[in-house]
Each structure stands twice: as C-alpha cells, then as structure tokens.
Amino acid sequence: MSEAALLARTDHQPAERRTFAIISHPDAGKTTLTEKLLYSAGAIHEAGEVRARGDRRRARSDWMAIEQQRGISVTSSVMTFEVGNILFNLLDTPGHQDFSEDTYRTLTAVDSAIMVIDAAKGIEAQTRKLFEVCRLRNIPIVTFINKVDREGQSPFNLLDEIAETLQLDVSPRNWPVGMGGLFHGIYDYAENKLLLADKSDGTVPGRVVQMTGMDDPLLDETLPADAVAHLREEGELARAAYPDFDLDAFLNGDLTPVFFGSALREFGVRQLLDGLSTFAPPPGPQPARNGPVAPSEARVSGFIFKVQANMDPNHRDRIAFMRVCSGALKRGMKLTNPRLGKAISIQNPITFFARDRELAELARPGDIVGIPNHGTLRVGDTLSERGDIAFTGLPDFAPEILRRVHLGDPMKSKQMRKGLSDLAEEGVIRIFKPALGSNWIVGVVGALQLDVLSTRMEAEYGLKLGFEPSPWEVARWVSADDDSELKRLLATHRSSMAEDGDGEPVLLMRNEWEMGRFAQDWPSIRFASIRERS
Ligand code: G4P
C-alpha cells in the first residue's frame, strides 16, 4: 500500500480507542454480553461496515492463507468493533478458572474493564480475584449486573455487596423495574428514559418512553400502579443512598458506575456501550523501566501480553499478542526486542475485526496486533523502534499446584529441561529448581495447565511426561531489604529453597499454615504471591 493510500486509510480510522476486557465468574454471562455488544455495535453501523468490508476483503484473504498454511487458529482472543468515532478493542479472557493466569496478563493490556455480576449470585470467587488484579493496576471498572429478567437478589443488596466486599463506591446509572416474573423494564437515570419489556412475550426489549423524571405522570400511564410505586420509592432511595457518578473517582478505580440489565434480552447493553464511550478512558501511559511511555510518543512501542501456541504438532508457530503503546505501527516495520538484542521485521501483523482476522496495515496506541512467529517472542517482551524501552508490570502468579515431573525415558532429561524452560518462558507453567536435589518442580495455577503441558511436551518435544505429587503446596517469592537476612533464610532452610526460571529465590512450603509460621518467624522477609515480570 502506498504511503498516500495508507494515510487515507488512517483518516478513516476512528480517532479514539477503548481497549477493555470483561471480567466475571463463569456463567455470569460474559459470552452472551460479548455477543450482544458486537451485535449492538454492528447493528448501529451496518452501512459503514458494509463499505469497510469491501476494502478489507483482499487483506483478509491474505491472512486466511497464512492461517491455513501455518495451521494456527486464533480463537476469539481480541474483537475489534466501531461505534461512531470510537474503535473498541475487546480482549477476551478464558472463562475457565484454570486459565485465569492468562486472564490476569490480559488485564495488563486494557485501559478499563466491565465486571459482569449475576443478579442472583452476586460477587463470586473468580470475579473477586480478577477485581483484585484490576485494583492492583487501578483499572477503572464499569459494572453490569446481569440477568435481571430472572429472579435475583434485591438491587440494594447487590450494590451494598459490591461496595462492602470490594471496597468500592457504587453509582447506579439505571434501575430495574421489578425482576424475574415481575420484570417490566429499566429506568435510565441519566436520560430519564424508560426501556420497557415487551410483555407480549415477557422479555424482548420493547418501546423506549421518554420521561421528564420519575414523577412524570406518563410513568403512571405506562406501568402498573404497584410497579410505579415501587420504582419511585426504590429509585429515589437509591439516588439518595449512593454517590453521584464522579469521573475522577471512577478513573482512579475508587468508584464503579453500575448498569442493571439482561445480556440475553438485550436490556442495558446499549447503555453500557454508551457508558464505555462516554467515560471509559482512552489509552494512557504505560509503565516502563525508565519511566512511563505516553501514547503520544511518536515512535512505535508495544509489549507482548499473551502467546498463543499452535496446537498442530507439525507447526511450531505462535501468535504473540502485542498491545501497541505508542506511535503508528505500519506493516513491515522493524522493531527491536531488547531481550534478544535484535530487530524483528513485523511482516504480517494481524488485527481482529469482530470475529474476522485481517492483515493490519496500521495500528495505533490501544490496538492489539497478533504477530506470527516461530517462538522468538515471549510474554513480557517489549518491541520498540527506539530499542531501549522495557515495559514493566506483567504479573507472574505463585502457582497453586506444585508437581514433580516424571520422565518415561531418563536419557531425555536434557530435552525435557529445554522443553520445560521454553514453556516456562512462554508463561504456560512455572519451573522451580530446588536448592537440594536435581528434580525440577513444575508449578501451575490450574490443573488444566498440566494437561496442556503434557500435550505440548509430547507434540512439540516428543516427550511423555508424568506428574507426581510434591511435598509442597505453597510457593512464595522471597525478598528483603537486608540481603544478609535473605542469605540467612537460604542457609537455614536450604531444603525448602528453590530458584524460579529467572533465577529468583523462592520458598516452597507444605501448606498455608507453614507459610504463616515463616511469616511470623521472618518478619523482615517479604513473601510475595505475585511477581512482576521484567
Ligand atoms: P459465561 O460466558 O460468563 O460463562 O456465561 P454465558 O454467557 O455462557 O451465560 C451463561 C448462561 O447464562 C447461559 O445459559 C446464558 O444463556 C445465560 N444468560 C446470560 N445472560 C442472561 C440474561 O441476561 N438472562 C438470563 N435469564 N440468562 C442469561 P446456558 O449455559 O445456555 O444455559 P441455559 O440457562 O440456557 O440452559
């Protein structure tokens, strides 16, 4: 593509970006909401999409050929869609909790998140864990309380639970008129609109009625008297009881706007999208070793937050997912990876439109591109034109399952170590080399990761692995301001000490109780369950 054509295309690119993820406990409705967001965005901009599609057709078929040739299937890792002048990049996160580590890393590449909560179940374990990661990074959260078309907890209970368990101010943006069998619709506070459920089949969104406020007599004409009385009482109470929306508090991660809705019935989805457009932040500066890198910086930079391997044993290819942090990335550009100390030519970057993939001619800060490679790029890598940038903040989580690896053929232990090291660097597993003995320990966050490990070791390295229990259940990275204390710990508890794949000291313990005892006995040592990749 000529420079002029590229610039013309640039002009057609939406000016703004919203790069976000959806966090939730399995079954809360993330998949349904994702579909409805895409649908809602597509429906609004059908004409624009049809026009853009012709433009993109050639690029897409190029990519399809690459995909077939290399046999990589990039599932729905990233979905990009446009609404008005805004390009939304929705980063998918694996639903199964065994892959939550991938989810955590994905959260380092977003600027905001939607927290989906099931109106019947409230805050669940996985939601809470993911929320904590967002909090670590001050990621602003928009809350969607889903399934109000079904019987659920009272809206007040749900709001209070969020406020109390997550220590977060809540500001409702709309209010459900009844729930379950008595669900009549949703009242939008900001615009004083009543979104009515179509009672002919009980659930499909029906008319939107403009009100002047909750005391509008039109409300009495539109809804049954008891529903109106209920809405006025609850709606007014809620407005008085919870803080008004405050943009700064939201951007600081101290307040969450809350939308009630039903993803399945498309209630509140459009409001949620409008909310994201209006107050979710555009791409901001990214933390790096020598100070944050602003999106306005002219030269291109980005970091790899996820690597997806090819499950076809005949191909060693990978797709590395990079978040562009600054500059305008053009296809064919050369970017330097400081870990490898060399420049890589980005020949076939991929972008992801809705459910399609295509070659990216241009990507801006906040965009995600997939970079096909043969295993050269790893989670945590920085790529930049400058060559001296190293982004920080990608978390490693202490494993919750520790296993000894058993190899069928002991003659192949060197190959096994290479395979384990490779997969550890890719971020699939964690390896620990105990200070005593030669048996490496493998650590994972979820049991399914062990299945992935054995499948890939067999397919890619021709090794059959077995796993045996290890004496340990808990691993913590240890550090101290006073180096001599760390040395003393090492010397006193050599049999519990190990090194991770990067040579960082780790303490392996039998259980949480032992962990508590160590923390008591060694007050000047820090025992970390999260470590930043650098
Ligand atoms: P997940 O990705 O977070 O795991 O959730 P997913 O969207 O798959 O939704 C989980 C279940 O909840 C689905 O039912 C889905 O249809 C249902 N669901 C999602 N949003 C709503 C909603 O707004 N209202 C209602 N009533 N249900 C909703 P399923 O797995 O197909 O089971 P089934 O309930 O259809 O049998």
UniProtKB/TrEMBL annotation:
Keywords: Cytoplasm, GTP-binding, Nucleotide-binding, Protein biosynthesis. GO terms for molecular function: GTP binding; GTPase activity; guanosine tetraphosphate binding; translation release factor activity, codon nonspecific; translation release factor activity, codon specific. One of its GO terms (cellular component) is cytosol. Pfam families: EF-G_D2, GTP_EFTU, RF3_C. Residues 15-284 form the Tr-type G domain. GO terms for biological process: regulation of translational termination. It is found in: Cytoplasm. Its main location: cytoplasm. The keyword Protein biosynthesis applies. CDD domains: RF3 (cd04169). GTP binds at residues 24-31, 92-96, 146-149. InterPro entries: EF-G-like_DII (IPR053905), EFG_III/V (IPR035647), G_TR_CS (IPR031157), P-loop_NTPase (IPR027417), PrfC (IPR004548), RF3_C (IPR032090), RF3_dom_3_sf (IPR038467), RF3_GTP-bd (IPR041732). Belongs to the TRAFAC class translation factor GTPase superfamily. Classic translation factor GTPase family. PrfC subfamily. Increases the formation of ribosomal termination complexes and stimulates activities of RF-1 and RF-2. It binds guanine nucleotides and has strong preference for UGA stop codons. It may interact directly with the ribosome. The stimulation of RF-1 and RF-2 is significantly reduced by GTP and GDP, but not by GMP. This is Peptide chain release factor 3. The lineage of its organism: Bacteria, Pseudomonadati, Pseudomonadota, Alphaproteobacteria, Sphingomonadales. The gene is prfC.
